[in-house]
Amino acid sequence: MTNLRAEGVSLGYDGLRVIEGLDLTLPDGKITAVVGPNACGKSTLLRGLARLHPLDGGRITLDGTDITAMPRKELARKVGMLPQSSIAPDGVRVAELVSRGRYPHQGWFGRHSSDDDAVVTTALRSTGVEELADRPVAELSGGQRQRVWIAMVLAQQTDIVLLDEPTTFLDVRHQLDLLDLLTELNRDRGTTVAMVLHELNLAARYADHLVVMSKGRIVAEGAPSDVLTREVVSEAFDLRAQVVPDPVAGSPLVVPMGRFHSGA
Amino acid sequence: MLTSPAAAPAGRREGAEAVAHRARRRTLALATALIALLLVVLASLALGVRDINPAEVWRALTAPVAGFVDHDVVLDQRLPRTIVGLAAGVALGTAGTLIQGVTRNPIADPGLLGLNSGASLAVVCAVWLFGITSPIGYVWFAFLGAAGAAAIVFSVGRGQPVRLALVGAAVTALITPLITLVLLQDQQAFNLYRFWSVGSLTGRGLDTVAWLWPFIVVGVVLAAVLSHRLNMLALGEDVATALGQRVGTTRTLSAIAIVLLAGTATSLAGPIALVGLVVPHAARRLIGTDYRWVMGIAALLGPVMLLAADVLGRLVLPQSELEAGVVAALLGAPVLIAVARSRNVVGA
Fold first, then answer.
1. In this structure, how many other beta carbons lie within 10 angstroms of the beta carbon of residue A125?
2. Using CA atoms, how far apart are residues B264 and B61, in angstroms rounded to an integer?
3. Does domain B87-341 have CATH number 3.40.50.2000?
4. What residue ranges do the domains of chain B occupy?
5. What ipTM did this prediction achieve?
6. Cα dihedral sign for B63, B67, B69, B75?
7. A188 vs B: CB within 8 A
8. Going by fewer Cβ within 10 Å, which terminus of chain A is more open, N or C?
9. What is the mean pLDDT of each run of 10 residues along chain B (348 residues)?
10. Closest Cα of chain A to B57: distance in Å?
11. CB contact under 8 A, A133 and B14
12. Same domain (yes/no): A53, A92
């Protein structure tokens, strides 16, 4: 198992600090969800963890080793990341896209081995897109496409998978579908999953470890039932809400109140 | 999970068929490109004001008879321009593919990034300031000019497609009046530039190629090494980085290869428009999205297009000849419009 940890991390853009001195350890083999209002720094934190964003201070370690001291390809064999900005080139087919996840395991000209083929086939199968292998990615629905991207990250064969808002452009059914898929990967393979999510209630339901952020710092973290209280929601989101047990999963369910609906 | 047990084997079989289909398609594309190249080379040696049959072309190459006009035409006139066309064509096809890949911009080419205008400015300055008129002399200036423009465009553009295009346009807009200024000062520069700027395979001889071929070799080898990196970069800078690629290195090496290739092509044949733009699109049509194959096919199709343009120019206007650069533009524009109209414009 591999352990990804942020120690006193500061991150920012062009001199503007977004995160200052933040500590976070992703629990091994668990699902972590990071939630928070817009511009709270949650995506920046995830990008920092994946070394997509340079640190202004502190360090990020993988099993105790500073990740900036590792060759990028070595890091990419241990930590996978699906950023928001992924682009499927026109005309690229599903299997071809997924096979690009093998890049960190390949030499300079990317010669395909039968080993690669086996990994790609497994990745296609475990994300349920095997039948789509020969279809152009551009022709797929949003939900299918997101599965293909996850298959690509799986083909990377990492112990840790980070996902930046993987459900954002999906309708509710496909959001559940995707989170079920990630849960399955976590349970079947023991993959450590960490993701930024917008939907509070789904985060509370699917995460083992919930991190609530606001203004560049962690407001609360821990088991969702401990963390997601009325007070925390109020502090992080500046939102009045009731928190009740989710009738389906038992996890906390945030029911927001507005100016016109404030409940009994 | 969602894959039912019954569907899985069918999926696998489809996959195997697709692999075989792809292999066939690649073989076919490679064969098509090679045959096309062979045909245009032959046409370039055989066709012109004086048509020479292929058997005689072969004899001229293998056992030339001194003083025999047909053989002299092949060896002294057509062979050099064919070799210039091959060299410049390979360079343009490869450079165009690299530029479109690294900028993720389907309409990028050496012209758009300001490389051609940089080279042009350096050449007219060489003539104006130092009185250099021999190709061997101003070749190096063309190189420097292209490299200078590339340095500005790549450092300011920082790999962002739109920014690169804007900076390229700005650099071109800045340089063009400077060129005009020099041309107004210097009649000699004007005469030389008028001919050079059109793009032709006849201005430079084999001695220029003898000087420049190592640059093309280095550029092509770099392009081959970079092609798999471009596959990752096509998925977005973040994905490429997350997959373990040092994107900055990819950009720097690409810029070096682009300057080597586009600089050489411009030195050899002048600022030829559209070959570097159209050829990568044609290559993608033939072979798909994998840059390792697109690069190879584009390297073959570059000289096909350039030599075809040159031969057509000889046939259309037998007495005065139409320059290859003009014909390439006339041929390329409709192809480009067809590409733009089709659904499959590849953005990366």
1. 19
2. 26
3. no
4. 87-341
5. 0.92
6. positive
7. no
8. C
9. 40 60 87 95 89 88 86 88 94 94 85 86 87 78 88 83 86 91 84 79 80 93 95 94 93 91 87 88 90 95 95 85 86 80 51
10. 39
11. yes
12. no
